[in-house]
Amino acid sequence: MKIERGYSERYEQALRLAASAHRSQNRKAGDVPYITHPFHVSAILLRYGFSTDVAIAGLLHDVVEDQGVDLGEIEGRFGGRVAGFVAALSERKRDAHGVKRPWEVRKREALEHMRQGDTEVAAIKVADVLHNARSMAQDVRRDGPETWKRFNRGPESQLDYYRRILEVGRERLGGHPMVDELAEAVGDLARIVGLDRLPHT
Prior knowledge:
- The chain is 65% helix and 0% strand.
- The protein has ten helices and no strands.
- It is globular and about 45 Å long.
- The chain starts with 8 loop residues before the first helix and ends in a 9-residue tail after the last helix.
């Protein structure tokens, strides 16, 4: 009987890269190291049985967008499949002139990448938003309305975006239990901020 090894050198290398890239970055809560987010995303994916490649992409999903790590480095170290997932998940925050692109445009593109990309891209995005929604709910419980000053948009826009992610997650992943967990997290957040009756637009 073949026994699966509990240790993956590739995963360890990805964790080191993510930790190094995000070393000076905190979460928007201010006092939480950013690396906790990609680690949770990756852990969620592993818990639901996704492959090591998908889990590695979960670890690295923000290093290009936020920290300027070159996709070529990711491809060279972890392969084209991982690099492709990361590319699909990376928002282009600035235009060719260095001007910050509108939040709404970037989120529309993210939804389109979920629809058009591999199902693994949709899975990573669902895990990403699942952790963000849980973290946001915790922040609102602790800090109340002050929480929203740290974000680009207020609760109505954030919830609308999360609900759209949930909708596309259902389209791409069907009745996967991770999507059910996201639905629960988004519902919890909506109740905490008093927007559980907000109509979907």
